[in-house]
Amino acid sequence: MGLQGIFNNQQFSTLFDNAGIGILVVNADGEIEAANKYILCEFGYNETDLLHQKIEFLIPERFRENHAKLRTDFSRHPVNIAVDPEKNLRGIRKDSSEFPIEMSLGFYKDGKDTYFIAFINDQSRKKEAEELIKDLNADLDQRVKESTRSLKATVDQLSRQIKENERKDEELEKALEKEKELNALKSRFVSVASHEFRTPLSGILASTYLLSKYTKEHEQPHRDKHIKRILSSVNLLNEVLGDFLSVDKMEQGNFKPNYTVFHIKTMVNDVIQNMQSILKNGQNISCVHNYENDTAYLDHSMFHHILTNLLSNAVKYSPEDKTIDLVIEQKDQKLIIRVKDQGIGIPEKEQENLYKRFFRSVNAAHIEGTGLGLNIVKKCVDTLDGTIECVSKENIGTEFIITFNNKKEHYENSISS
Question: Rounded distance, CA 314 to CA 397, Å?
Fold first, then answer.
């Protein structure tokens, strides 16, 4: 059946004219043999305007010569193809206005004659949608910036404190270099906090809203669930702020130990109690004490931070229904703390970077964290003249072993020397 015969078929003609995409039928010489209503509407022509025109008639003049060459090559070796959208094809209307188009090409043979079919779609709306998405992303970025303004205030205060610490003229060069480092740290803080603050804040807002919906007495379990989520999110925010403040002290040179005598068991029980709000379903912390003397001579705050951070990490990186083991023992006048989990573990090739600031292993990217905790733990352990060891295997678990000298005379001698 010839081309005319095909278009004389009423069903085909109806489908052709009412298609939701532009369709052109072009002969081997590049002349338009048929155009559906979609094409005529998009380009602003009537059918008599287009028939027997070269297909380049619908392309801006600056592209016509190159397109004619491509059409000739396609005529020699016809295939069904979709033209790469990245080529930014353009069409030109009767009123000379240009617009982006998307095109697919096909062909069919009728005896010795070859006809080419171009399916053409107006991409203007798609471009508008892309611009809308850009605007929405920009709005989202602005909201993130607003949610971190308290962090910016803290970092600004840090910068002011650094400037106030500049004292002697001969230390000016060192102070200026320090300020550059802190500015870089400030930028990283903002980047990390933009992510780490957004998730818990969103959780707090959502749970607070849902709490207002549960007003009946029998809905108390729902209220308890959202209250636990709020507490968990607040603990996470406190953890992030605590990490930032600890780094602040390190950078100012105020990270010095304040040795005191305190009861280990009391400290450990307080930390474990604080962990209850972040435990996942079925998780528990098993604590084993193995010592005769319940006292330690260390910096109370640093010891508290070390224990809190290691237990918090063990909870975060372990699945539900797993036990975190905490063992505290005294041996040969040394205080030894072991924290062992059954979590995701740390890839062996990444363990050498474990204590670097902002380091996150590849298998922990989906879990909240600043990448500062273990860096601060290492600084605390070093400051207290202790040692830290990590034994970890991916998908099996991780154990941290920290050892301190538990003799008052040891630390007094270290300070005096």
Answer: 9
DSSP letter, residue 28: T
User: What DSSP letter does each residue of 137-195 carry, written as one string?
Assistant: HHHHHHHHHHHTHHHHHHHHHHHHHHHHT---GGGHHHHHHHHHHHHHHHHHHHHHHHH
Whether residue 297 sits in one domain with residue 238: no
Distance between CA atoms of residues 196 and 190, nearest Å? 10
Count CB-CB contacts under 10 A for residue 309: 23
pLDDT of residue 390: 93
- The identity of residue 148, as a single letter, is T
Confidence of residue 416 (pLDDT cuts 50, 70, 90): very low
Give the pair of three-digit tokens for residue 363: 């298998």
* Residue 353: domain span: 259-416
> Is the distance from CB of 273 to CB of 311 less than 8 angstroms?
no
pTM for this structure? 0.47
Number of domains in the chain: 3
- Cβ count near 40 (within 10 Å): 17
